[in-house]
Amino acid sequence: MSLDIKQIMEIIPHRYPMLLVDRVEEVEPGKRVVGYKNVTINEHFFQGHYPGNPVMPGVLIIEALAQLGGTAMLSMDGYKGKTPLFAGIKSAKFRKPVVPGDVLKLEVEIVKIKGPAIVGKGIATVDGKKAAEGELLFMVV
């Protein structure tokens, strides 16, 4: 199953300028999700984040992974219509700068679900090279 931007906005509550997922290529509710963020020079954060040498903030790459993970969670029966909160990150690593023109491929695998607590492993790549990764903790309220 794939999702366009309208379908994504029906699932997760984020909106511009904080919506950081443009397309979902595949989603297995509660298991795995793959999506994309098209990074352009028009992003609001590039105005102040290294002007003249724009680099996407690492925290926003992690946020994009968290939003994508939210689509996998909120696609599950019992979680639809709820609010996913980002509760923590473990072992975050940033490997490669993400710059305008990059297509950020985002992948999140849900590794544990215990009631409202969900743990996912996220990886962000550009052209097959790892840009960021981390273990994400969500609470669904």
From TrEMBL:
InterPro entries: FabA_FabZ (IPR013114), FabZ (IPR010084), HotDog_dom_sf (IPR029069). It is found in: Cytoplasm. It is an enzyme of class 4 (lyase). Belongs to the thioester dehydratase family. FabZ subfamily. Its EC number is 4.2.1.59. It catalyses: a (3R)-hydroxyacyl-[ACP] = a (2E)-enoyl-[ACP] + H2O. Involved in unsaturated fatty acids biosynthesis. Catalyzes the dehydration of short chain beta-hydroxyacyl-ACPs and long chain saturated and unsaturated beta-hydroxyacyl-ACPs. GO terms for molecular function: (3R)-hydroxyacyl-[acyl-carrier-protein] dehydratase activity. Transmembrane segments: none annotated. Keywords: Cytoplasm, Lipid A biosynthesis, Lipid biosynthesis, Lipid metabolism, Lyase. It comes from the Bacteria. One of its GO terms (biological process) is fatty acid biosynthetic process. The gene is fabZ. CDD domains: FabZ. This is 3-hydroxyacyl-[acyl-carrier-protein] dehydratase FabZ. The active site is at 49. GO terms for cellular component: cytoplasm; membrane. It comes from Clostridium pasteurianum BC1.
